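Inputs:
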Amino acid sequence: MTPLAAYLLVSALLFAIGFAGALTRRNSILVLVGVELMLNAANLNFLAFWRYGPNPEALTGVMFVLFAIAVAAAEAAVGLALIIAIYRHYCSSNVEDVATMKG
Amino acid sequence: MKGIINSLWLIPALPLLAAGIIALMKRPQRKPAAALAIGSMALAFLVSCVAFVATLQPEAGKGAVQLTHNFAWFDLGGSALRLGWLLDPLTAGMLVMVTFVGSLIFIFSVGYMDHDENLTRFFGFLALFAAAMLGLLIANNLLFLFMCWELVGVASYLLIGFWFHKPSAAAAAKKAFITTRIGDLGFFLGIVWLYHETGTLLFYDNGAGCLEQGALTKLVTQTTVGGMAVSTAISLLLFCGAVGKSGQLPLHVWLPDAMEGPTPVSALIHAATMVAAGVFLVARVFPLMGAATADLGLEGHSPHTTALTVVTWVGACTAVFAALIAVAQNDIKRILAFSTVSQLGYMMLGLGVGGPAVGMFHLLTHAFFKALLFLGAGSVIHGSHHEQDIRRMGGLRKLMPITFAAYAVGMMALAGFPLVFSGFWSKDEVLHAAMIWSPSKLPFLLGLFGAVLTAFYMTRQMWFVFFAPRAESASSPGRAAHSASHHEPQGASSSPHESPRVMTLPLVILAVATVLLSLFATPVWPWFHAYLGGQLDHLQVGWSADSAAGLTMLLSVLAVALGVSASWRLYSRGKAGTDAVERLFPRLFRALQGRLYVDEFYAATVFRLNAAVAVLSDWADRFVWSSVVELAAWLAKGLAWLSRTLDESGINSGFDAGCVETRGAGGFASRLQNGQTQRYLRILGAGVVVLVVAIVWMGNN
Amino acid sequence: MNFIFAILAGLTVGAAFAAMTLRNLVHCALCLTVSLIGLALLYLQLGAEFAGFVQVLVYVGAVAILILFAVLLTRGGEAPVGRITNSLGAGLLVAAAVFGVLAWAIIGSSALKALPKETPQPALLVKAVGDKLMGEFVLPLQGIALLLTAALLGAVVIAMREKSSPAGVAVDSRSATRNP
């Protein structure tokens, strides 16, 4: 197994763990944590492909990771602000309780 | 001096402005309102005098001064609607007369309306009335003239119905408004027709106006139904308006009823403004009336056109007819009202047979002495506490000396006493023109008979009011009612008294003017003719009349003498309380007292016809039209029922089935949307897996 | 090399697993931090030192603290009683399917096999990163700056206390009663 495949597998595992957490945990903060894990898994993918890809001198993978980190930071800030606002409104951080949009 | 034309609009604008300001005033502001109205009229009088002076200097060889100032009012498509002011001797003379007489009447009103609580409103209306009349005078456009004409009508409606809480006043106002409206219909049709034919309504527009050579030639040469020239037809239509406004037969019925208004209003209507408008209109469109194929533009001598013949006959008949009725009236103002109708007939007669100069001079002199008479009557009524029946007056000669003197001057002018009273000269001219009128001598005879009657009824009135022995006033219910409502502490209500100075002063001024005016149109010095005809520079002092004039004068003096002496003999010897003529010819007198039953005749014919038509239309409406409408309604209902049945059984059931299906599908879809984000995410994950597997599988195959 | 990779991968994956399964939310946040540090180390292993340091700065320094704050603000400090998961079976099944698909793709991919087995470690200079950021990627950089500003403002606005809302009053009163 090549190092690239190993990195990709680790990344896939991280992604799956984050996905499972986002799908199953009741607390909305942990759902957000799961999403963060999935993002980081993607970042690991980018870097692995940059490192083992055909032209690493282009630095595109690194650039993508930098931007992704910035966007993820913004996402985390807004997401957590939403969670706090929702908690204030519903007195709950449980994702099941926030179902006003149900049909 | 000629620049006055550009500021001619000031003359109507000043009273109009005053009316506007007074309309905004409060009821207790009586003095400012009166001062404003009188001041505006006085200013208008000054401007009018300037305009009058401007017309005194005709350019040599060009005839009368004729200044116009035209401007575009607004654009209608390609053509502009143009209005304008016109200043010629006709306008200038009328302007001076209206503003002068109007000012005096305004001043008189201060005294007469002293007790009325709506004095402010009264002066507002008066100013509006005067403004409308002045606007009518300066108009150089038939449409603008018509607008002012209608404004005069509205103002007269407001003023006649000023005491609108009296049902008779309200009815009289309505009657005046509606009766003149009948004539106005013809007037308006004439305007429309004239515009259609000539394309302009400006009177004078440097050769392009509707009263100038080009347009007249066109109008005269065209004929309409019955071979009548278009100019004749239009003239007759315009004359309809004049008949309504100037109270000619058969539309005179409103004028006597207009006495329901306050007396100054009567004076204004009868002397200066309203009724003069009709005569003025005829004089204004005289070129059109007198236009004939043979003698176009001939002035001074009246051409014998069909239109003028009609004017002549209507005037002559009205003159005699109204004079006859006046003989048998007992209300002091009603006698004067019928005398106005009669004199208006003379004016029309003068216009018809003698042209504008003759008719207009009588209009001017009549304005002065009729204003004098009405204000005198107002003074009498005011002095004797709103008593209007001449049989209950009497002996006022001693009690109201100034009023008596002024009234006597007015009476003699109206009756046509020789030499020093203007009425004599103006009436004499009318009769003279009628005498030399070639088509028929009958108008002349009618006029002469009218002169006898005028002298007769005026003497009768004078005798009853001023000379007769004083009747016992305590028996009069009207007086009793009045003194109860107008209680005066000094006990002065028991006997008549002289009016205050603010009322007698206008009387004196008018009396003097009445006498002085006679200087201007004697055969020795026919200044007024020359002025209107624009021949002032050819004017010579000297006996310029022909033999017919002397004969006319002789006959007219005889007529006056006959009327006065007959009346005086009959009444001074008669017993108090009864009427001498009534004893002699009781049936005739009653018929005359009933105003020859014209109103009754209208009530029996026009009103009955109107009512019958109304009943018929009501019946038709109820049974014919409503059944048609209901049939249509039933038809529509049947169609609607059919449509509904089809709709419900056919279309709706199919649609309903579709709806049920859609709702079921919607319910299923809505259950998917349960608001649980994790379920959405799960479905998303499953979708990704399926998608990847599918893509890979398809890629491998 | 392989050994270090295995340790780092195990640490990262294990910490992530713990972060997703522990009952106490504070513990979860701390485990997430450990996992993020592991990832930073993996970046270093890959030669992307700059990315690794940024990872430490942003994630460990900011996001983890932010999450900790959120946990404490929403009174998640005590361990919750009762169920902590929600439709566990279905969630795990889907996640496993996703992992299966990914792993199958990685292992079975012919493109990956075509790549060279071993490549020289590329030299990543911070200067080169700076040049790239200020040259080729200057527009995305500005966009990110704008996005961060907007997100900052948005977060502040969203988290601001609701004014005179009945629900907000209810929250306050309830939290007051719950306070010891």
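Confidence is low (pLDDT under 50) at residues 294-302, 473-493 of chain B. Flag for discussion at group meeting.
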